Protein backbone atom coordinates (compact mmCIF):
# COMPACT_ATOMS: atom_id res chain seq x y z
CA UNK A 1 0.00 0.00 0.00
CA UNK A 2 1.20 3.49 -0.82
CA UNK A 3 2.15 5.56 2.21
CA UNK A 4 0.19 8.53 0.86
CA UNK A 5 -3.00 6.44 0.90
CA UNK A 6 -2.37 5.62 4.56
CA UNK A 7 -1.71 9.30 5.31
CA UNK A 8 -5.05 10.29 3.81
CA UNK A 9 -6.90 8.44 6.58
CA UNK A 10 -4.62 9.53 9.41
CA UNK A 11 -5.49 12.31 11.86
CA UNK A 12 -2.08 13.97 11.73
CA UNK A 13 -0.79 17.37 12.80
CA UNK A 14 1.87 17.26 10.08
CA UNK A 15 2.87 14.62 7.54
CA UNK A 16 5.48 13.89 4.89
CA UNK A 17 4.02 11.63 2.24
CA UNK A 18 7.17 10.07 0.82
CA UNK A 19 6.63 7.91 -2.26
CA UNK A 20 7.13 4.61 -0.46
CA UNK A 21 5.15 1.38 -0.21
CA UNK A 22 4.26 -0.05 3.20
CA UNK A 23 3.16 -3.59 3.97
CA UNK A 24 2.74 -3.87 7.74
CA UNK A 25 2.45 -2.00 11.04
CA UNK A 26 4.40 -2.39 14.29
CA UNK A 27 4.68 -0.53 17.60
CA UNK A 28 7.48 -2.78 18.92
CA UNK A 29 10.78 -2.16 17.13
CA UNK A 30 11.90 -5.71 17.93
CA UNK A 31 9.18 -7.09 15.64
CA UNK A 32 9.88 -4.76 12.70
CA UNK A 33 10.16 -6.06 9.17
CA UNK A 34 11.18 -4.36 5.94
CA UNK A 35 8.34 -2.25 4.59
CA UNK A 36 6.57 -1.78 7.92
CA UNK A 37 5.22 1.43 9.41
CA UNK A 38 6.59 2.04 12.90
CA UNK A 39 4.19 3.78 15.29
CA UNK A 40 6.27 5.40 18.04
CA UNK A 41 4.15 6.40 21.02
CA UNK A 42 4.63 7.32 24.63
CA UNK A 43 3.32 4.57 26.90
CA UNK A 44 2.98 3.95 30.62
CA UNK A 45 6.28 2.05 30.92
CA UNK A 46 8.42 3.33 28.04
CA UNK A 47 8.59 5.84 25.21
CA UNK A 48 8.50 4.23 21.77
CA UNK A 49 10.19 7.29 20.28
CA UNK A 50 13.46 6.04 21.76
CA UNK A 51 13.40 3.17 19.25
CA UNK A 52 12.80 5.02 15.99
CA UNK A 53 16.40 4.62 14.79
CA UNK A 54 16.27 0.88 15.57
CA UNK A 55 13.02 0.55 13.60
CA UNK A 56 14.49 2.34 10.57
CA UNK A 57 17.58 0.17 10.74
CA UNK A 58 15.29 -2.87 10.52
CA UNK A 59 13.56 -1.56 7.42
CA UNK A 60 10.76 0.78 8.50
CA UNK A 61 9.57 2.75 5.45
CA UNK A 62 7.45 5.20 7.46
CA UNK A 63 7.26 6.40 11.06
CA UNK A 64 4.31 7.84 12.97
CA UNK A 65 5.31 9.69 16.13
CA UNK A 66 3.62 11.64 18.91
CA UNK A 67 6.83 13.64 19.57
CA UNK A 68 7.50 16.94 17.75
CA UNK A 69 11.23 16.56 18.46
CA UNK A 70 11.30 13.06 16.98
CA UNK A 71 9.33 14.18 13.91
CA UNK A 72 11.67 17.07 13.15
CA UNK A 73 14.70 14.80 13.58
CA UNK A 74 13.14 12.34 11.14
CA UNK A 75 12.63 15.05 8.53
CA UNK A 76 16.22 16.25 8.90
CA UNK A 77 18.01 12.90 8.93
CA UNK A 78 15.76 10.46 7.00
CA UNK A 79 14.41 12.25 3.95
CA UNK A 80 13.40 9.01 2.23
CA UNK A 81 11.24 7.78 5.11
CA UNK A 82 7.56 8.67 5.33
CA UNK A 83 6.67 10.56 8.49
CA UNK A 84 3.64 11.78 10.40
CA UNK A 85 3.27 13.76 13.61
CA UNK A 86 0.15 12.96 15.63
CA UNK A 87 -1.32 14.13 18.92
CA UNK A 88 -2.35 10.67 20.20
CA UNK A 89 -0.16 7.70 19.40
CA UNK A 90 -2.71 5.00 20.22
CA UNK A 91 -5.35 6.58 18.00
CA UNK A 92 -2.82 6.73 15.20
CA UNK A 93 -1.85 3.10 15.74
CA UNK A 94 -5.49 2.10 15.27
CA UNK A 95 -5.95 4.27 12.18
CA UNK A 96 -2.75 3.14 10.46
CA UNK A 97 -3.33 -0.53 11.30
CA UNK A 98 -6.89 -0.47 9.98
CA UNK A 99 -5.77 1.17 6.73
CA UNK A 100 -2.77 -1.11 6.09
CA UNK A 101 -4.76 -4.26 6.94
CA UNK A 102 -7.66 -3.31 4.70
CA UNK A 103 -10.17 -2.44 7.45
CA UNK A 104 -11.03 -5.95 8.66
CA UNK A 105 -13.20 -4.43 11.42
CA UNK A 106 -15.74 -3.52 8.73
CA UNK A 107 -16.27 -7.18 7.88
CA UNK A 108 -17.32 -8.24 11.39
CA UNK A 109 -20.31 -7.46 13.60
CA UNK A 110 -18.64 -6.65 16.92
CA UNK A 111 -20.15 -7.29 20.36
CA UNK A 112 -18.14 -5.80 23.23
CA UNK A 113 -18.56 -6.56 26.94
CA UNK A 114 -17.25 -4.53 29.87
CA UNK A 115 -17.72 -4.59 33.64
CA UNK A 116 -15.81 -5.71 36.73
CA UNK A 117 -17.08 -9.29 36.94
CA UNK A 118 -18.61 -11.64 34.38
CA UNK A 119 -16.94 -10.37 31.19
CA UNK A 120 -15.24 -13.64 30.34
CA UNK A 121 -18.23 -15.89 31.01
CA UNK A 122 -20.59 -13.57 29.15
CA UNK A 123 -18.26 -13.46 26.15
CA UNK A 124 -17.88 -17.26 26.08
CA UNK A 125 -21.66 -17.69 26.35
CA UNK A 126 -22.39 -15.27 23.53
CA UNK A 127 -19.83 -16.91 21.27
CA UNK A 128 -21.33 -20.36 22.04
CA UNK A 129 -24.81 -19.07 21.18
CA UNK A 130 -23.65 -17.54 17.89
CA UNK A 131 -21.71 -20.69 16.96
CA UNK A 132 -24.76 -22.84 17.74
CA UNK A 133 -26.58 -21.29 14.77
CA UNK A 134 -23.62 -21.79 12.43
CA UNK A 135 -21.91 -18.41 12.64
CA UNK A 136 -18.12 -18.30 12.51
CA UNK A 137 -16.72 -16.08 15.27
CA UNK A 138 -13.68 -14.30 16.58
CA UNK A 139 -13.39 -14.18 20.38
CA UNK A 140 -10.85 -11.98 22.18
CA UNK A 141 -10.70 -12.19 25.97
CA UNK A 142 -8.87 -12.87 29.19
CA UNK A 143 -8.52 -16.63 28.91
CA UNK A 144 -7.93 -17.22 25.22
CA UNK A 145 -8.53 -15.97 21.70
CA UNK A 146 -10.59 -17.86 19.13
CA UNK A 147 -10.34 -17.41 15.37
CA UNK A 148 -13.02 -19.70 14.05
CA UNK A 149 -12.05 -23.12 15.41
CA UNK A 150 -8.46 -22.08 16.20
CA UNK A 151 -7.61 -21.38 19.85
CA UNK A 152 -4.76 -18.98 20.69
CA UNK A 153 -3.20 -17.74 23.93
CA UNK A 154 -4.41 -14.32 25.12
CA UNK A 155 -1.53 -12.25 26.55
CA UNK A 156 -3.93 -9.45 27.60
CA UNK A 157 -7.68 -9.09 28.15
CA UNK A 158 -7.76 -6.45 25.40
CA UNK A 159 -4.65 -6.25 23.16
CA UNK A 160 -3.33 -3.16 21.39
CA UNK A 161 -5.41 -2.08 18.40
CA UNK A 162 -2.84 -3.33 15.88
CA UNK A 163 -3.02 -6.83 17.36
CA UNK A 164 -6.81 -6.77 17.56
CA UNK A 165 -7.05 -5.81 13.91
CA UNK A 166 -4.60 -8.54 12.91
CA UNK A 167 -6.82 -11.08 14.70
CA UNK A 168 -9.86 -9.60 12.97
CA UNK A 169 -8.09 -9.90 9.60
CA UNK A 170 -7.33 -13.57 10.31
CA UNK A 171 -10.97 -14.03 11.28
CA UNK A 172 -12.27 -12.50 8.08
CA UNK A 173 -9.98 -14.81 6.07
CA UNK A 174 -11.42 -17.76 8.03
CA UNK A 175 -14.96 -16.74 7.12
CA UNK A 176 -15.92 -15.08 10.42
CA UNK A 177 -18.84 -12.67 10.42
CA UNK A 178 -19.06 -12.08 14.20
CA UNK A 179 -16.59 -10.87 16.82
CA UNK A 180 -16.98 -10.92 20.60
CA UNK A 181 -14.53 -8.95 22.75
CA UNK A 182 -13.92 -8.30 26.40
CA UNK A 183 -13.11 -4.60 26.73
CA UNK A 184 -11.25 -3.72 29.91
CA UNK A 185 -11.35 -0.31 31.55
CA UNK A 186 -7.63 0.10 30.82
CA UNK A 187 -8.19 -0.57 27.12
CA UNK A 188 -11.13 1.83 26.92
CA UNK A 189 -9.28 4.64 28.69
CA UNK A 190 -6.06 4.07 26.75
CA UNK A 191 -8.04 3.91 23.48
CA UNK A 192 -6.74 0.49 22.50
CA UNK A 193 -10.18 -0.06 20.95
CA UNK A 194 -10.17 3.23 19.03
CA UNK A 195 -12.19 3.15 15.83
CA UNK A 196 -13.74 -0.30 16.36
CA UNK A 197 -17.41 -0.14 15.32
CA UNK A 198 -19.26 -1.83 18.22
CA UNK A 199 -22.69 -3.09 17.21
CA UNK A 200 -23.77 -4.47 20.62
CA UNK A 201 -22.25 -3.20 23.88
CA UNK A 202 -22.77 -5.04 27.18
CA UNK A 203 -22.28 -3.85 30.76
CA UNK A 204 -22.24 -6.51 33.51
CA UNK A 205 -21.61 -4.60 36.77
CA UNK A 206 -19.13 -2.36 38.54
CA UNK A 207 -17.46 -3.03 41.89
CA UNK A 208 -14.15 -1.87 43.36
CA UNK A 209 -11.16 -2.95 41.31
CA UNK A 210 -8.21 -1.37 39.47
CA UNK A 211 -8.17 1.74 41.67
CA UNK A 212 -4.39 1.49 41.61
CA UNK A 213 -4.74 2.63 37.99
CA UNK A 214 -7.94 4.71 37.88
CA UNK A 215 -7.67 6.30 41.34
CA UNK A 216 -11.40 6.63 42.09
CA UNK A 217 -14.59 4.69 41.38
CA UNK A 218 -15.90 7.63 39.33
CA UNK A 219 -12.88 7.52 37.03
CA UNK A 220 -13.17 3.74 36.81
CA UNK A 221 -16.84 4.09 35.86
CA UNK A 222 -16.05 6.82 33.33
CA UNK A 223 -13.59 4.47 31.60
CA UNK A 224 -16.22 1.71 31.38
CA UNK A 225 -18.86 4.18 30.17
CA UNK A 226 -16.75 5.03 27.11
CA UNK A 227 -17.92 1.80 25.48
CA UNK A 228 -21.42 3.31 25.30
CA UNK A 229 -20.26 6.67 24.00
CA UNK A 230 -17.81 7.23 21.16
CA UNK A 231 -14.35 5.69 21.02
CA UNK A 232 -13.48 6.78 17.51
CA UNK A 233 -16.68 5.32 16.04
CA UNK A 234 -20.44 5.84 16.41
CA UNK A 235 -22.19 4.80 19.62
CA UNK A 236 -23.30 1.14 19.70
CA UNK A 237 -26.50 0.24 17.89
CA UNK A 238 -27.69 -1.72 20.95
CA UNK A 239 -26.77 -1.30 24.64
CA UNK A 240 -27.29 -4.34 26.90
CA UNK A 241 -27.07 -3.14 30.51
CA UNK A 242 -27.55 -4.69 33.95
CA UNK A 243 -30.40 -2.68 35.44
CA UNK A 244 -29.90 -4.19 38.90
CA UNK A 245 -26.48 -2.53 39.16
CA UNK A 246 -26.43 1.09 40.39
CA UNK A 247 -23.83 2.08 37.79
CA UNK A 248 -25.82 0.24 35.14
CA UNK A 249 -28.86 2.35 35.99
CA UNK A 250 -26.73 5.46 35.48
CA UNK A 251 -25.77 4.23 32.02
CA UNK A 252 -29.41 3.52 31.20
CA UNK A 253 -30.45 7.01 32.35
CA UNK A 254 -27.68 8.66 30.31
CA UNK A 255 -28.37 6.72 27.10
CA UNK A 256 -29.60 8.84 24.21
CA UNK A 257 -28.16 7.05 21.19
CA UNK A 258 -28.52 3.27 21.45
CA UNK A 259 -31.44 0.87 21.48
CA UNK A 260 -31.69 -0.15 25.15
CA UNK A 261 -31.98 -3.71 26.45
CA UNK A 262 -32.03 -3.57 30.25
CA UNK A 263 -31.79 -6.89 32.09
CA UNK A 264 -31.80 -8.19 35.65
CA UNK A 265 -33.70 -10.01 38.35
CA UNK A 266 -35.60 -7.06 39.83
CA UNK A 267 -38.96 -5.86 38.42
CA UNK A 268 -37.56 -2.45 37.45
CA UNK A 269 -34.30 -3.75 35.95
CA UNK A 270 -35.57 -3.71 32.37
CA UNK A 271 -37.63 -5.63 29.83
CA UNK A 272 -35.44 -8.76 29.97
CA UNK A 273 -35.62 -10.57 33.30
CA UNK A 274 -35.05 -13.89 35.01
CA UNK A 275 -37.88 -15.24 37.14
CA UNK A 276 -38.55 -18.50 39.01
CA UNK A 277 -34.82 -19.19 39.36
CA UNK A 278 -33.75 -22.72 40.34
CA UNK A 279 -30.11 -23.28 41.28
CA UNK A 280 -28.15 -26.45 41.98
CA UNK A 281 -24.62 -27.69 41.38
CA UNK A 282 -24.12 -28.11 37.66
CA UNK A 283 -27.45 -26.62 36.62
CA UNK A 284 -29.19 -23.26 36.51
CA UNK A 285 -32.81 -22.85 35.38
CA UNK A 286 -35.06 -19.81 35.11
CA UNK A 287 -37.87 -18.31 33.08
CA UNK A 288 -36.42 -15.79 30.62
CA UNK A 289 -38.98 -12.97 30.37
CA UNK A 290 -38.81 -10.87 27.20
CA UNK A 291 -41.16 -8.40 25.47
CA UNK A 292 -41.66 -11.03 22.73
CA UNK A 293 -42.47 -13.99 24.94
CA UNK A 294 -41.03 -16.15 27.71
CA UNK A 295 -38.88 -19.28 27.65
CA UNK A 296 -37.36 -21.78 30.06
CA UNK A 297 -33.59 -21.22 30.15
CA UNK A 298 -31.28 -24.08 31.21
CA UNK A 299 -27.52 -24.03 31.60
CA UNK A 300 -24.81 -26.22 33.11
CA UNK A 301 -23.28 -23.10 34.67
CA UNK A 302 -23.84 -22.77 38.40
CA UNK A 303 -25.07 -19.92 40.56
CA UNK A 304 -26.98 -16.66 40.65
CA UNK A 305 -24.07 -14.70 39.22
CA UNK A 306 -24.35 -16.83 36.08
CA UNK A 307 -28.02 -15.94 35.77
CA UNK A 308 -26.81 -12.39 35.10
CA UNK A 309 -24.18 -13.62 32.65
CA UNK A 310 -26.78 -15.71 30.82
CA UNK A 311 -29.15 -12.73 30.64
CA UNK A 312 -26.45 -10.44 29.21
CA UNK A 313 -25.36 -12.97 26.58
CA UNK A 314 -28.97 -13.84 25.69
CA UNK A 315 -29.90 -10.20 25.17
CA UNK A 316 -26.83 -9.69 22.96
CA UNK A 317 -27.67 -12.81 20.95
CA UNK A 318 -31.21 -11.53 20.41
CA UNK A 319 -29.75 -8.18 19.33
CA UNK A 320 -27.58 -10.06 16.83
CA UNK A 321 -30.67 -11.52 15.20
CA UNK A 322 -31.06 -14.90 16.90
CA UNK A 323 -34.57 -16.08 17.81
CA UNK A 324 -35.60 -16.73 21.41
CA UNK A 325 -35.71 -20.48 20.70
CA UNK A 326 -32.20 -20.38 19.22
CA UNK A 327 -30.89 -18.46 22.24
CA UNK A 328 -32.33 -21.01 24.67
CA UNK A 329 -30.84 -23.91 22.70
CA UNK A 330 -27.47 -22.15 22.49
CA UNK A 331 -27.39 -21.51 26.24
CA UNK A 332 -28.03 -25.18 26.93
CA UNK A 333 -25.08 -26.17 24.71
CA UNK A 334 -22.60 -23.75 26.29
CA UNK A 335 -19.39 -25.32 27.63
CA UNK A 336 -17.64 -24.80 30.99
CA UNK A 337 -15.57 -21.61 31.05
CA UNK A 338 -12.03 -22.41 32.31
CA UNK A 339 -11.39 -21.09 35.81
CA UNK A 340 -14.96 -19.90 36.35
CA UNK A 341 -16.51 -22.11 39.05
CA UNK A 342 -14.52 -24.97 37.58
CA UNK A 343 -15.16 -28.16 39.55
CA UNK A 344 -12.02 -30.29 39.88
CA UNK A 345 -12.91 -33.96 39.14
CA UNK A 346 -12.72 -36.09 42.27
CA UNK A 347 -13.81 -39.47 43.61
CA UNK A 348 -13.97 -38.00 47.12
CA UNK A 349 -17.27 -36.95 48.70
CA UNK A 350 -16.30 -33.29 48.71
CA UNK A 351 -16.36 -30.55 46.08
CA UNK A 352 -13.28 -28.56 45.05
CA UNK A 353 -13.83 -25.49 42.89
CA UNK A 354 -11.32 -23.20 41.17
CA UNK A 355 -12.57 -19.69 40.43
CA UNK A 356 -11.07 -16.42 39.20
CA UNK A 357 -12.76 -14.34 41.95
CA UNK A 358 -10.18 -11.66 42.78
CA UNK A 359 -12.27 -8.81 44.18
CA UNK A 360 -14.25 -8.67 47.42
CA UNK A 361 -17.55 -8.58 45.52
CA UNK A 362 -16.65 -11.58 43.37
CA UNK A 363 -15.45 -13.45 46.46
CA UNK A 364 -18.72 -12.70 48.28
CA UNK A 365 -20.74 -13.98 45.31
CA UNK A 366 -18.62 -17.12 45.07
CA UNK A 367 -18.93 -17.91 48.78
CA UNK A 368 -22.67 -17.19 48.74
CA UNK A 369 -23.11 -19.69 45.91
CA UNK A 370 -21.03 -22.28 47.75
CA UNK A 371 -23.13 -21.75 50.89
CA UNK A 372 -26.30 -22.52 48.91
CA UNK A 373 -24.78 -25.70 47.52
CA UNK A 374 -23.69 -27.17 50.87
CA UNK A 375 -26.82 -26.16 52.78
CA UNK A 376 -28.75 -29.38 52.20
CA UNK A 377 -25.78 -31.53 53.26
CA UNK A 378 -24.87 -29.37 56.27
CA UNK A 379 -21.42 -28.97 54.76
CA UNK A 380 -18.80 -26.29 55.40
CA UNK A 381 -17.30 -23.69 53.07
CA UNK A 382 -13.50 -23.57 53.08
CA UNK A 383 -12.10 -20.59 51.18
CA UNK A 384 -8.52 -20.24 49.98
CA UNK A 385 -7.52 -16.88 48.54
CA UNK A 386 -4.70 -14.39 48.15
CA UNK A 387 -4.33 -10.86 46.79
CA UNK A 388 -2.29 -9.71 43.81
CA UNK A 389 0.79 -7.56 44.25
CA UNK A 390 1.30 -4.18 42.56
CA UNK A 391 -2.47 -3.74 42.46
CA UNK A 392 -5.12 -1.87 44.48
CA UNK A 393 -4.10 -2.33 48.12
CA UNK A 394 -7.38 -1.06 49.55
CA UNK A 395 -9.26 -4.17 48.44
CA UNK A 396 -7.02 -6.55 50.44
CA UNK A 397 -8.73 -6.14 53.86
CA UNK A 398 -12.09 -6.01 52.05
CA UNK A 399 -11.36 -9.41 50.52
CA UNK A 400 -10.31 -10.67 53.93
CA UNK A 401 -13.60 -9.54 55.47
CA UNK A 402 -15.59 -11.10 52.61
CA UNK A 403 -13.80 -14.43 53.04
CA UNK A 404 -14.11 -14.42 56.82
CA UNK A 405 -17.78 -13.46 56.95
CA UNK A 406 -18.93 -16.16 54.55
CA UNK A 407 -16.60 -19.08 55.24
CA UNK A 408 -16.20 -21.68 57.96
CA UNK A 409 -12.44 -21.79 57.43
CA UNK A 410 -10.13 -19.43 55.55
CA UNK A 411 -6.75 -20.40 54.14
CA UNK A 412 -4.84 -17.24 53.30
CA UNK A 413 -1.98 -17.59 50.83
CA UNK A 414 -0.06 -15.89 48.04
CA UNK A 415 -1.59 -15.03 44.66
CA UNK A 416 0.64 -13.19 42.16
CA UNK A 417 2.80 -11.06 44.50
CA UNK A 418 4.77 -9.59 41.60
CA UNK A 419 7.36 -7.16 43.01
CA UNK A 420 5.88 -7.03 46.53
CA UNK A 421 6.73 -9.08 49.62
CA UNK A 422 4.13 -11.89 49.74
CA UNK A 423 3.84 -11.79 53.55
CA UNK A 424 3.15 -8.04 53.56
CA UNK A 425 0.26 -8.63 51.15
CA UNK A 426 -1.01 -11.54 53.27
CA UNK A 427 -0.89 -9.45 56.45
CA UNK A 428 -2.95 -6.68 54.84
CA UNK A 429 -5.64 -9.20 53.88
CA UNK A 430 -5.37 -10.92 57.26
CA UNK A 431 -6.46 -7.70 58.99
CA UNK A 432 -9.83 -8.07 57.29
CA UNK A 433 -10.21 -11.75 58.19
CA UNK A 434 -9.47 -10.94 61.83
CA UNK A 435 -12.47 -8.62 61.95
CA UNK A 436 -14.54 -11.81 61.78
CA UNK A 437 -14.58 -14.78 64.12
CA UNK A 438 -13.57 -17.24 61.40
CA UNK A 439 -10.51 -19.42 61.86
CA UNK A 440 -7.73 -18.56 59.41
CA UNK A 441 -4.66 -20.59 58.43
CA UNK A 442 -1.80 -18.65 56.81
CA UNK A 443 0.45 -20.49 54.37
CA UNK A 444 2.51 -18.41 51.94
CA UNK A 445 3.30 -21.30 49.58
CA UNK A 446 0.22 -21.61 47.37
CA UNK A 447 0.67 -25.30 46.56
CA UNK A 448 1.03 -26.16 50.26
CA UNK A 449 -1.99 -23.96 51.05
CA UNK A 450 -4.13 -25.81 48.50
CA UNK A 451 -3.18 -29.10 50.11
CA UNK A 452 -4.04 -27.75 53.59
CA UNK A 453 -7.45 -26.54 52.40
CA UNK A 454 -8.38 -29.79 50.67
CA UNK A 455 -7.14 -32.04 53.50
CA UNK A 456 -9.17 -29.96 55.97
CA UNK A 457 -12.38 -30.79 54.07
CA UNK A 458 -14.79 -33.57 54.99
CA UNK A 459 -17.67 -35.23 53.18
CA UNK A 460 -20.22 -32.62 52.11
CA UNK A 461 -17.80 -29.68 52.32
CA UNK A 462 -16.87 -27.38 49.44
CA UNK A 463 -13.35 -26.00 48.98
CA UNK A 464 -13.05 -22.75 47.04
CA UNK A 465 -9.65 -21.98 45.49
CA UNK A 466 -10.05 -18.34 44.49
CA UNK A 467 -8.08 -15.69 42.69
CA UNK A 468 -6.15 -17.21 39.80
CA UNK A 469 -8.76 -19.27 37.97
CA UNK A 470 -7.58 -20.13 34.47
CA UNK A 471 -4.03 -18.82 34.97
CA UNK A 472 -1.19 -21.27 34.37
CA UNK A 473 1.62 -19.25 35.98
CA UNK A 474 2.44 -17.46 39.21
CA UNK A 475 4.18 -14.08 39.00
CA UNK A 476 6.83 -13.66 41.70
CA UNK A 477 9.47 -11.04 42.41
CA UNK A 478 12.05 -13.53 41.13
CA UNK A 479 10.17 -14.16 37.88
CA UNK A 480 7.25 -16.09 36.43
CA UNK A 481 6.90 -19.79 37.23
CA UNK A 482 4.43 -22.43 36.01
CA UNK A 483 1.47 -22.83 38.37
CA UNK A 484 -2.00 -24.25 37.79
CA UNK A 485 -4.55 -24.28 40.64
CA UNK A 486 -6.59 -27.02 38.91
CA UNK A 487 -3.57 -29.30 38.40
CA UNK A 488 -2.31 -28.81 41.97
CA UNK A 489 -5.77 -29.50 43.43
CA UNK A 490 -6.23 -32.57 41.22
CA UNK A 491 -2.90 -33.93 42.42
CA UNK A 492 -3.89 -33.55 46.08
CA UNK A 493 -7.25 -35.23 45.43
CA UNK A 494 -5.52 -38.18 43.76
CA UNK A 495 -3.21 -38.59 46.76
CA UNK A 496 -6.16 -38.56 49.16
CA UNK A 497 -8.06 -41.08 47.02
TrEMBL record:
The keyword Ligase applies. Keywords: Ligase. The lineage of its organism: Bacteria, Pseudomonadati, Acidobacteriota, Terriglobia, Terriglobales. Its EC number is 6.3.2.13. This is UDP-N-acetylmuramoyl-L-alanyl-D-glutamate--2, 6-diaminopimelate ligase. It comes from Tunturiibacter gelidiferens.
Amino acid sequence: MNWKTVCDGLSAVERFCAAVEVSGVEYDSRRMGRGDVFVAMRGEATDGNRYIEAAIAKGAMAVVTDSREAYEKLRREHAGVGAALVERGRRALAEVSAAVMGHPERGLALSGVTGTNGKTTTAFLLEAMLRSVGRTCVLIGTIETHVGDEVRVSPHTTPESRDVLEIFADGVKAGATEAVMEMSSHALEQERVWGLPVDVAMFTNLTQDHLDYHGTMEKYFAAKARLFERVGSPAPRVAVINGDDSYGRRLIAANRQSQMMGYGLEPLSGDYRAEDIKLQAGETRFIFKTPNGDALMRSSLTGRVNVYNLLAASCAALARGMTLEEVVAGAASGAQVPGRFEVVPSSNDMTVVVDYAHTDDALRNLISLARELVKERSGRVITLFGCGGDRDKTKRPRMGRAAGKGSDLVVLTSDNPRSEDPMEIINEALAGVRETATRCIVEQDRAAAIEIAIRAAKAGDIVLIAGKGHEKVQILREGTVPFDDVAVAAGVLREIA
